[in-house]
Amino acid sequence: MPTGAGRLRSVLANHQASVLHQLCLKAEAEMKQKHLLRSVMSDMEKRERAVMERLFLLMAHNTKRRESFHEYEHALFLLNLCGADVGDSQHSRKTAAAMVAAADAVQMLQLRAFVTTPNSLTGTKPHVSPAADKITDASHDQTQVVNVRVNYHGTPVAVMLDNTPIDGKGTPAGAAEAGGYALFNKLLESLEVVGIRMVIGSTPVYGNGGMSEQVRCSAFDNEGCYHDEGSGLVHYLHNSAGDATGQGRAAARAAPPRAGQGRRPVMASDCHFNLYLFAKLMIYLLILTIPVQKIPHTHPNSLL
What we know:
Layout: H1 5-16, H2 19-64, H3 69-81, H4 93-115, E1 129-136, E2 142-152, E3 155-165, H5 180-192, E4 199-200, E5 203-204, H6 224-227, H7 233-243, H8 249-253, H9 271-289
Antiparallel strand pairs: 1-2, 2-3, 4-5
Helix pairs in contact: 2-3, 3-4, 5-7
């Protein structure tokens, strides 16, 4: 009877001819086939992801330069001619439009998450500076463009927040359909899209010396709908706490202008202008206080 190495060779030889060995070989082949299938599927997923990123970059390029959705198809065809992998689908101008809508929705979710998350060290939410302007197109339709500026990890970032039509709903009798009252309410609605609430219940958190936790500065042009005393958006932004009737959230937003209200107080949105005047005045005072030195007629090192 073989012993040692001879016995081991005998056992291996018997195993190779056994049914168990054949089952092991079959299981090994099946495992290799499954691994190959997983590898192929993984490669396909990586390719699809790379292609989709390339198409989204193309969409963003066209959108940034205000190109039409038809141009998306033309630029994609050019990429294909240049040898770039553009995949086998998602090549339509309608897909480009859907990409823009999807990217905008994701951006709003990211912005909302950022401005509603308190800082881990200070416990305060990020400051947001809105800027708005009323636009009237050739068909006399009016919209209000609202941009917001935030400090994102030390980098100032401006994002277009809203550009919806001004419907004038709730505008009191005698007030302009697209005047300061309507623009003020539209501004508050735009800020609420990203979770910034300027009115809590029926209580404004600004105006009459108060200040919003996040909205400390704002910027508008000199149109009457923004800067008219008693009827401009800036008036409601500063004085709505005193003008609010307390009859719910809508009434607490902005009340109709009243006669004899006087001049509005200077508040946070005027800081950029007031600081400029203050700095200019300080420079003038500094110049005036510098002593005038007599200019010598001869050189200081002269022997004469």
